Amino acid sequence: MGCAVAITLLIAAATLIITRFLYVLHRTGKPSSSKGSAPQPLSTLIVLGSGGHTAEMINLLSVLQKDRFAPRFYIAAATDNMSLQKARLLEENADESSSSQFMQIYRSREVGQSYFTSVLTALIALAHGLWLMIRIRPQVILCNGPGTCVPLCVIAFLFKVVGIRWSSVFYVESIARVQRLSLSGLLLYKLRIADQFFVQWPQLQKKYPRAHYVGCLM
Predict the structure, then answer these.
(1) Structural domain boundaries of the chain?
(2) Dihedral (C-alpha) 70, 182, 190, 161: value to the nearest 10 degrees?
(3) What would the pLDDT profile of 163-183 be if each residue is shown by its tens digit?
């Protein structure tokens, strides 16, 4: 009798989780249903990456309505100090540094690292990312390709499933990706984690029809 009850509870729990998972997949990318109320500032997590990733993100942030996306939390890999320096400079020039915070996270995969060893580092990054996401609980996540964004976006998706926080993920693929998506972009696209997925080349939009072509942002 007790075994039958346990099995029934497990089936009910699995059904509930699957139903919630399918609901999140269905809702991902769809606009909010809230109407009539004045828009409130949205806590925003901005994921930076070394090299061109940060340059593109800074260019995007320069036209962002910062009063709509506040407070802002900048995250870069633990081995990447230049990106956070650039973000601090951007905030200081806009006289908005008081509404921003800067953090570092373990990197899920270094450039040139083997996929086998990257499994361990990805798990470490996932655990560290979970701790950061519990602290921040952002409403919006902006990213454009660094591997650092993947564990954070996966955690954001899981938060949706369990009802902790509904974070909208906006992914802008790097301009350097002309014919195919980066590994980060491909994962977020195939797993349907990104609410809105943008590419900067028309041939990419044709190859990945759920993406939105926005032209070159640089």
Answers:
(1) 42-213
(2) -30
(3) 888 999 999 999 999 999 999
